[in-house]
Amino acid sequence: MESLKGDILVSQEDAHPCISWDESYIIFDSSERAGVRDNDLFVSFQSEDGTWSEAFNLGQFLGLDNSGLARISADGESIYFHSDGDIYRMDTEVIEAIKTNEHPPGAENRA
Question: Which SS3 state, helix, strand or coil, does residue 93 take?
Answer without folding.
Answer: helix
